[in-house]
Amino acid sequence: MQNLDNALCYVAYAGGFALGSYLGMGLERKLAIGTVLVNVITRKNTLSLQKSLKKNNYGFTQIGGKDIDGKESIIFIFVKRKELNNVERIIKEFNPNAFFSVEDVRDVNEGRYPLKSNKKYKMGIFKKFFILKNKSSLTQSLETETVD
Do 27 and 42 fall into the same domain? Predict the structure, then answer.
């Protein structure tokens, strides 16, 4: 440990740490990897929002809520982070003053978020590049699954 009595070293360390954190957050936002949960809370009728989300192939869950001023609707929407801007645009078209929050989701188990298609896996490239010991059972199990 050297230069512990030099205040400039402390400032340089703090500046480097802050810059690294700032650049890391910007890079994470640009890469847009992962899934987020968008929570929308509004007092307006959400039928048009639900139709728009379904039209754009986004899965959601809507529940009723109540606060001190009355009834409200709460909609949970799971989306890929890359599609967050599109979902925010849909929400703002529905209600520019709607309250919504965005949370990072660590793990997601199977479900309908976003709505799944019924396409089969294409096995051509997989078969070409990998040698499988038990080809028939693996091929049968993969062909019956659906794409997310």
Answer: no
* Same domain, yes or no: 94 and 141: no
Please count the structural domains in the chain: 3
Q: What is the DSSP string of 44-103?
A: S--HHHHHHHHHTT--EEEEEEEETTEEEEEEEEEEEGGGHHHHHHHHHHH-TT-EEEEE
Average pLDDT score over residue span 45-68 = 90
Task: Enter the tokens of residue 115.
Answer: 């709505």
What is the distance between the alpha carbons of residues 67 and 87, in angstroms, rounded to a whole number? Answer: 25
Please give the structure tokens belonging to residue 116: 């799944």
pTM exceeding 0.85: no
From CA 52, how far away is CA 91, in angstroms rounded? 9
The Cα 92–Cα 94 span in angstroms is 5
Find out whether 77 and 94 touch, Cβ atoms under 8 Å: no
